[in-house]
Each structure stands twice: as C-alpha cells, then as structure tokens.
Amino acid sequence: MAEEAAPTESSPLRPGRAARFIPRSPVGWLGLLFVALIVLWLGRNLVADPSEFFSIFFIGLTNGAVYALVALGYTLVYGILQLINFAHGDNFALGGLVASTVIVSWFGLGGDPSTGAVVVGIAVALVIATAFSSALGTTIELVAYRRLRNAPRLAALITAVGMSFILQDIGLVGWGVSFRTIDPLISNDVAFSIGDVGFQWNKLTVLALTVPVLLVLTWLVRSTKQGKAMRATSMDMDAAAMMGINVNRTISFTFALAGGLAGAGGLLYFLHFSSIRYDTGFQLGLIAFTAAVLGGIGNLSGAVLGAILIGLIEQFNEGLPLWSPGSDWTRSIVFGILIAILVFRPEGLLGERTPEGG
C-alpha cells in the first residue's frame, strides 16, 4: 500500500492540540468572567469542605469516564463521515442489556458472589457485549448508511434517527419495559485514602477498565497503519482510495470500533449504576453527544475532556452544598454551559475550525 499523507490540521480525526483562549471582544471577556465565577464557586466549596469536594470530584470523574466511552464512538463516526450517528446511544443500551443477560442469567451473579465468579463474569460479559455492539455497529453502517454516503446529509441524519427507534424497539421486545437491575457486584469499600478522602473499589474498577481503553484507542488512531487510514479517509475519501486505502473496510472498521466502545460503555454503566433499560441509551447518548460537541466533535481528546467536564458539572451541581441550584437544574446547567462555550468557540474546546463540506 502506498504511504498515506500525514493528516493536516483540518483532519476531523486529528489528535488535537490546546486551544487558545484570548478574548478579542467584550463578549470574550464576558465569557472569562463567567469562567471566573465558576472557579470562585468551586474554590468556595473546596475551602468549606475539602473531603466532601474531592469525594464528589471522584464520583464525577468516574461518571465522566463512562460517558467518554460513548462520546468517543460519536466522535469517531463523525470524524470519518461527518455523520451524527443517533443510533449509537441505543447500541450502547443494547450492549448493556446483553451484558446484563450474561451477568444475571448466565452466571447468576447476585447477592454476595465470590470474587473469582465476579471477575470471570465481568470478563465474559465485556467480551460478548463488545463483540455484539461492534458487529451491530458494522451492520448498521452496511445496511443503513453505506448507500447514503453520497446523498444529502439530511437523508443520512433521518436514517440515523430511524435506526435509533428500531434499536429501541429491539431492546423493548428482547428485554421488556422493566429495568434490568442487580445488586452491586463490586465493593464500595475504600480502596485507598489520601488524607480524609477515600476512593472506593467500585469507582477504581471503572477507571481501571476505562483508562486503558482510552489509551489504546489513542495509540491506534495516532500510530497504527489502520489509524492512518482512518485519518486519511476522514480528510478525503477519493484521495485515500487513490492512495490504495480500502475506504469501505476503513469505514466499517470505524463503526466496529465505535460499536465496541458502546458495548464496553454499556457494561460499565450497568456495573456502575446497577440498572439499565431499553431506552437508557437515549438520555445517555444525548449526554455523550453533548460531551463530544463540547470538547470538539471529531477530536478524540476533546470527547474525553467534554465527557469528564459533564460528569463533574453534574456531580458538583447535585453534591456541593454551597450555592448549588439543585439536581432539578442539572440538565439545564449542562446545556447552558454548552451553549455558552459554543457561542465563544463554535468548534468546541479542543476543536479546530474546518471548512464545511458540500
């Protein structure tokens, strides 16, 4: 295969670089004032109760890690096709439901299972859920999106919405309307402490499973031959094909990779929150998509940053005692901050301005 051209700054799957935040207008300075007020609020709560602050911080970090797995799937697909794959959140939910079947029905884990049984059950559920969602993502691309590759973007967008409803119905028929629940499988005992702040095993396990996945994904996109093919395809499909890249296979691989991340995220969500339902993917998919947009859609580092920020925003608003609007305002605050950031930086926190395609 001929050597692929290195991606330029406009590549949607670029690794990303730190954005410059230098106000050039009164609106920009207003944005900095808004950020300063948030920092002041966080600092006031930190001084009032440091241990509570860091406990809430770790919860938000754990939730954000789960969101990041799903957000990366959105950003991978958008980066290569400029398509918002609304079915991705429902793929996540089906992956979680498959994982719940493996854990509850196959292994019968519940009550107080042995550590060995938990480890084996989670490992098998991870493999099966990841493989299932990966195959589902590839199938969706082949059946629903491939023939619309050169169609107007609105056609692909409507198809993605339709696939989302189809996957929800599959989950409803296969697993019913009730939540799939389980007693916590991972202990919430303190794994280690830093001063008065303890970090529980359940949160540590989520991060221990998530962080390696994020690092491997970053390495794959940046350093491997397949990752170079993905970045070249994201820049120009026709040019990539002339360079000897199999565009269809590269796009299918991207959907398989995004689906695998959704399946792993579904398992971690089920383990972390102990329940999942056929429509869970709608709300969490919306949060994950928001995270991808917040960080810079098409930017891997931005998706992770946006997901962690949303996880922290949710928990800080719901958990910090001083000057907090309360949990009823969480979604409004998340989207309010998103709107404010996009007003000042339409490309997101780590995104780069790119010309719109035809």
Arrangement of strands in the largest sheet? 1-4
Question: Sheet with the most strands?
Answer: 2 strands, antiparallel
The structural class is mainly alpha
Radius of gyration equals: 21 Å
- DSSP strand (E) fraction? under 5%
The mean pLDDT is 85
Shape: globular
Listing every helix as H and every strand as E from the N terminus to the C terminus, the arrangement reads HHHHHEEEHHHHEHHH
Helix percentage range: 55-70%
Helix count, DSSP H or I runs of 4 or more residues? 12
Give start-end ranges of low-pLDDT stretches. Answer: 1-10, 15-19
Spatial gap, N to C terminus: 29 Å
Q: What's the β-strand tally?
A: 4
Please describe what this structure looks like.
The chain has a domain of 234 residues. Helix 2 packs antiparallel against helix 9, helix 4 packs antiparallel against helix 9 and helix 11 crosses helix 12. The chain is globular and about 60 Å long. The chain is mainly alpha-helical and 358 residues long. The protein has a two-stranded antiparallel ribbon. A two-stranded antiparallel ribbon has the order 2-3. 69% of the residues lie in helices and 4% in strands.
